[in-house]
Amino acid sequence: MKKLLLLLVIIMTASQVINAKVSKAEKQALLDLYESTNGTSWLKQWNTDQPVSEWYGVTVEGNHVVEINLFRNNLSGIIPPSIGNLNHLRILNLAFNTLSGELPNTISQLQNLEILKIEMNRLKGNLPSEIGNLVNLLELTAFNNFFSGSIPDSIGDIENLRVLNLSSNNFVGHIPDSIGNLTRLESLGLFENSLDGDIPRNLGQLVLLKELVLANNELGGAIPAEFGQLASLKVFQIQNNKFNSYKNLELMDTREFLVFDYDKDDAKLDFKDINFSKTRMADTKFEDEEEH
What we know:
By secondary structure, this protein is an alpha/beta fold.
């Protein structure tokens, strides 16, 4: 009898999970996304007559949408402002599509968001100045879009961030000093923008960094001496900028580097502790010119 009751409880629990219903606001936000991104042209479409929990790429827990993963699913069009109504969302992956328009300001309402992947699209305009409201974010990847303007200072408020990649966009202005607050950061990619000015000295506080890619910008001044504190770096690329002094590179522990790219002809430095058997040091300026 006890076994029968237990079986009934399991069946009823499973039934509740299968038939989980999200709120009208959350379902409408999903329908808005489907409509505004030409859902009928997606590679894997939604049957909106089915429960939301059965829609491709959507994960529902506790009657709330917690994940949307539509990676490489032929989305086009815009991200609707109602995306901000999915306030239980933890993962939003819209990468490798052809989304256009601006990232809506309402994205900053998703304060439970941990992963935001919007790379390899055609998004443009500024990053929302309120992006720093995403205090639980661990990963923000937005490379290969058409974002412009300056990188918001508020990005330094996302203190749990592990990965930040804004490479291959049209960002201008200085690297915000506030990025130095991201002391849990392990990967920082700002490659191929139009960033200028000096590198903030407090980037030397990011001692967990394994990857630092600042190449192909218009950064100037001297390499900060504080970079000598970045003992965890494996990948370091600063080539194709406008630095006037590379001397402080000699303060860095390069023994564990796997990739180390800088403008060697300009620097004329001697790194006796580099393990050339495992470290790639390329004259990337020449290579890039050849590729174009």
